[in-house]
Specification:
Layout (H helix, E strand, L loop, with lengths): L2 E5 L2 E4 L4 E8 L7 E7 L6 E8 L4 E5 L7 E6 L4 E6 L8 E8 L13 E2 L3 E6 L1
Length: 126
């Protein structure tokens, strides 16, 4: 069982930065693939970034829309997954969710993730 709690959302101007945090409970959480998703009003939930330990290093994956601007990382000592968001755009406005997938590969479809946080809101003003 894994429990997730996001924080760090807020209001920021276009071009600004935010760092989202996801605190993960569960002793073996590093076995899970961890993902960040977002959902804007009236739109489907979409993949943003994912990270998975492969036994040697952390594999990462990003949506094309955020590549070069967002960075996903972990701090195992703090049981936390981060999403550093730079050069934010108004179209990044959404509720952001942290999720955990118990399979061994990085997946990008939200229906395949098993555990979800409550979400944190990000608003980027133009």
């Amino acid at each position: 069982q894994v429990q997730l709690r996001e924080s760090g959302g807020g209001l920021v101007q276009a071009g600004g930065s935010l760092r989202l945090s996801c605190v993960v409970s569960g002793r073996t959480w590093t076995r899970y693939a961890m993902g960040w998703f977002r959902q804007a009003p009236g739109k489907e939930r979409e993949f943003v970034a994912g990270i998975k330990w492969n036994g040697l290093f952390w594999n990462t994956n990003y949506a094309d829309s955020v590549k070069g601007r967002f960075t996903i990382s972990t701090d195992s000592a703090k049981n936390t997954v981060y999403l550093q968001m730079n050069s934010l755009k108004p179209e990044d406005t959404a509720d952001y969710y942290c999720a955990a997938d118990s399979t061994t590969v990085l997946r990008t479809t939200y229906t395949e993730y098993d555990y979800w946080g409550q979400g944190t809101q990000v608003t980027v003003s133009s």
